[in-house]
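Reference record
================
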Amino acid sequence: MPAVSVTDLGGDLYLVDAHLHDEAERLACYLFDTPNRVLIECGPSRSIGHLYEALAAIGVDDVAVLAVTHIHLDHAGGAGHFAQRFPGSRIGVHEQGARHLISPERLWASAERIYTPQGMLDLWGTMEPVPADRLLVLDEGGRIPLGNGRHVEVMYTPGHARHHIVFYEAETGACMIGDSVGLAFPHGHLVHPNTPPPDFDPHLVAHQMRRIAARSPAFLGFAHFGPDRTPAATLEAAERRMWAWVEWVEAAAAQDDAGLETRMREWVLAGYRAEGYPEEVIARYDRNTYWPMQAAGIRRWLSGRS
């Protein structure tokens, strides 16, 4: 079993490494260990036991709210299991994702078409429904109380997914951003876009990045993975790289649509080498990217423009 990893971020906020796919630094969950404990993200059931171990190791035996940024399986696949494990908790989710946690069959079937039935179990484990009376439906401007006058504020941030939300907390200045900005593994300064179908919309993504920047957060809490303490520069770089991906896919697909995901991967990784990133860093992003999905998300958006 992976070693428990919990990092104190200050202000009663902790980063809990959920060891997605049994690997370190793949999924960051954020715990407010306050009178009303709030946990951001839980990961899939396949690896949720690592999260349980970490919470137990720091003496957490109850959680008031588990809030997920969106319902993609690497963030919320284990929400129903979590609800069973912590029967006093409520499960916070945007209204557009709520029905899929109550009845996960359509979400599961859609993902099976990508990963195959056995692949689903190997990667994600099973999904359990969340009882409707346990849901906390969240939207723009909502607040999740932490106790002692503190709260987590909800921002509705479609762009990566139509059910995506971001969480901001004023005392720490933390902004837990899920996948709304991209991937940023903790070696510094590289934000890798995350552009899956069916909801990816670069204009919405850019808009959300600017809204997040306007809050002047102390740090961005990436789900994949960890805090970034240069938010303004990071958000600017993330937007610039995202548009570069969109422009490349548009030009490349216009010339020849065959093998687009392979050519996109080669172009992206070659660009990282040209920027001077070490091979081990490039390999990490490559390993954590499902390239057909990234190319397909951009192509879908391009084809849907009026």
